[in-house]
Design a protein that fits this description.
The protein is built from 6 helices and 3 strands. By secondary structure, it is of the alpha+beta class. The relative contact order is 0.10.
């Protein structure tokens, strides 16, 4: 026998289908309604694209147009050449950057955002805005300042 008080309301959807305050559905397609992280979930794809240290700053610098390795080093002086090389290689493997090697000595490289990389622009803008909003609410519980 079923009790009406113990059953969920009929109009209540799955938690992952909840609508945001602005009325926009949080997971408008079935790919986002997973019960665990899946490689083809749009949120996981976006997060993977920008995951890793410096993985947001390198594309940010390339949003203005192609840059060479030395130019990227000048714009991100805290980033070592070794780590920059690793990030560039990873971003190329993710399909976010293309690299052109120019003949000569020394060999010059030019990095350009692909269409996939340019698609990160609204995400980076929104991540920045969200970070600003979170910072305005104060530090997270148990958070320690990064140094």
């Amino acid at each position: 026998m079923r009790h009406a008080a113990s059953e969920p309301p009929v109009d209540e959807g799955h938690p992952t289908e909840t609508h945001a305050a602005d009325g926009q559905e949080l997971t408008p397609t079935a790919r986002g309604r997973t019960v665990r992280p899946e490689p083809d979930c749009p949120v996981e794809v976006a997060l993977t694209a920008v995951s890793g240290r410096w993985a947001t700053l390198v594309p940010r610098e390339l949003m203005g147009g192609p840059l060479g390795f030395s130019e990227l080093r000048e714009r991100l002086p805290e980033l070592s050449a070794k780590v920059l090389s690793q990030r560039l290689r990873e971003l190329c493997e993710r399909g976010l950057l293309s690299v052109e090697r120019r003949r000569g000595f020394p060999v010059r490289t030019c990095y350009t955002l692909t269409g996939r990389g340019r698609a990160l622009r609204p995400l980076l803008i929104e991540l920045y805005a969200t970070g600003e909003a979170l910072l305005a609410t104060g530090p997270a519980a148990g958070a320690s300042p990064r140094g």
